[in-house]
């Protein structure tokens, strides 16, 4: 059974066979995906089972006509239909691929705005239009390719090391491991047509190259005493390290995060860290992954005697609030997150 996600929606074939109402509903989904990070609408799935109904046949012309009709119901939306596909159950379906609108805000033909949040299409209020414009730039930051840094401009060892780490991961599928180094970099959106994306520069570039992109990762680490006076400060502003190296260097230098308490344990004493190392790593990765790379500001790690605070530049993504933050998953930098979770 297929599950809907931030990037994928499943619709019944009746949506394109019921007339205007069905197409208007599909147009809302297209606009919401375009205003977020793009995605795919699979048409021909039963609403309840999320499987194509038995013996379902779809003509290719019907799929092409659906895409043409949807284009007339959306503004600033680039979409295309696939050839009719065969599901493993023997029934047919097709997909509509929606590209993210990089430079403009998508809307329905009647002037309404939507955005994809988790697996829902949420309306955008008029007062949030300016915020959406700012967020769209942040959403697509990773994939920007300025063609100022090519594969020939980077240290070849950086590419080799990245590809080998991908191949050595037990979370990576075999067909990816069999790719060449460049193909792996392309698969993870570090390279496009021989040039590095911003994400590629962040991961494979040198300090000079990273300094040219909008706002690479910079970090301040501040320790306070019991009176909340600053007693130590470290910072990382030189752009020498890629995100993985930076994470490891922070873990090495943030010694206060390794402190522990001792508790009696029978005849012995047991040390328990103030903060579990896995928790620290997860918090740091979240700070890197959810930072807005289109605005200036440091990731700030503040260590107090009774608490730890980590903040990063940028507010909550559009659609995420203090009330739904524990449940909503709106990824600002999904391709960076993909690398971290590989």
Task: Explain how this protein is built.
The chain is globular. It has 11 helices and 17 strands. It is 32% helix and 21% strand. 32% of the residues are buried. The longest helix has 16 residues, at 20-35. It has 342 residues and is an alpha+beta fold. It has 3 domains: 8-124, 2-Layer Sandwich (Methyltransferase, Cobalt-precorrin-4 Transmethylase, Domain 2); 151-212, no CATH class; 219-340, Heat Shock Protein 90. Strands 1, 2, 4, 5 and 6 form a 5-stranded mixed sheet that branches. A 4-stranded mixed sheet has the order 13-12-16-17, covered by helices on one side. Helix 1 (20-35) crosses helix 2 and helix 4 crosses helix 6.
Sum this structure up briefly:
With 342 residues, this protein is an alpha+beta fold.
Record the SSE blueprint.
Elements: E1 8-11, H1 20-35, E2 39-43, H2 60-72, E3 74-75, E4 78-81, E5 85-86, E6 92-99, E7 107-108, E8 114-117, E9 120-123, H3 129-140, H4 156-167, H5 174-177, H6 181-187, E10 191-192, E11 195-196, H7 198-204, H8 207-212, E12 219-224, E13 230-236, H9 243-253, E14 260-265, E15 268-273, H10 277-290, E16 299-303, E17 308-311, H11 334-340
Parallel strand pairs: 1-2, 12-16
Antiparallel strand pairs: 2-6, 3-7, 4-6, 5-6, 8-9, 10-11, 12-13, 14-15, 16-17
Helix pairs in contact: 1-2, 4-6
């Amino acid at each position: 059974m297929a599950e809907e996600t931030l990037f994928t929606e499943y619709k019944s074939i009746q949506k394109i066979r019921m007339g205007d109402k069905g197409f208007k509903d599909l147009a809302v989904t297209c606009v919401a995906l375009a205003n977020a990070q793009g995605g795919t609408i699979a048409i021909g799935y039963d609403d309840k089972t999320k499987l194509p109904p038995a013996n379902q046949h779809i003509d290719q012309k019907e799929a092409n006509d659906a895409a043409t009709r949807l284009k007339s119901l959306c503004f600033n939306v680039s979409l295309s239909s696939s050839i009719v596909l065969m599901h493993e159950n023997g029934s047919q379906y097709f997909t509509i691929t929606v590209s993210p609108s990089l430079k403009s805000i998508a809307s329905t033909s009647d002037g309404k705005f939507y955005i994809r949040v988790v697996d829902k299409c949420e309306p955008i209020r008029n007062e949030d239009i300016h915020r959406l414009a700012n967020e769209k730039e942040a959403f697509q930051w990773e994939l920007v390719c300025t063609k100022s840094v090519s594969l020939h401009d980077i240290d070849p060892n950086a590419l080799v090391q990245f590809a080998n780490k991908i191949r050595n991961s037990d979370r990576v599928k075999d067909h990816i491991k069999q790719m060449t180094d460049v193909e792996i970099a392309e698969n993870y959106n570090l390279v496009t047509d021989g040039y590095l994306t911003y994400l590629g520069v962040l991961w494979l570039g040198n300090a000079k190259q990273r300094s040219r992109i909008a706002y690479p990762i910079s970090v301040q680490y501040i320790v306070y005493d019991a009176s909340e006076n600053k007693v130590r400060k470290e910072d990382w502003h030189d752009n020498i390290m890629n995100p993985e190296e930076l994470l490891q260097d922070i873990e090495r230098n943030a010694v206060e995060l390794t402190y522990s308490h001792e508790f009696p344990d029978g005849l012995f004493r047991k040390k328990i860290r103030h903060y579990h190392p896995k928790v620290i790593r997860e918090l740091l990765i979240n700070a890197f992954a959810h930072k807005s790379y289109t605005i200036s500001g440091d990731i700030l790690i503040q260590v107090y005697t009774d608490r730890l605070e980590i903040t990063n530049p940028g507010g909550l993504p559009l659609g995420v609030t203090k009330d739904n933050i524990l449940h909503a998953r709106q990824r600002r930098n999904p391709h960076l997150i993909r690398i971290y979770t590989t």
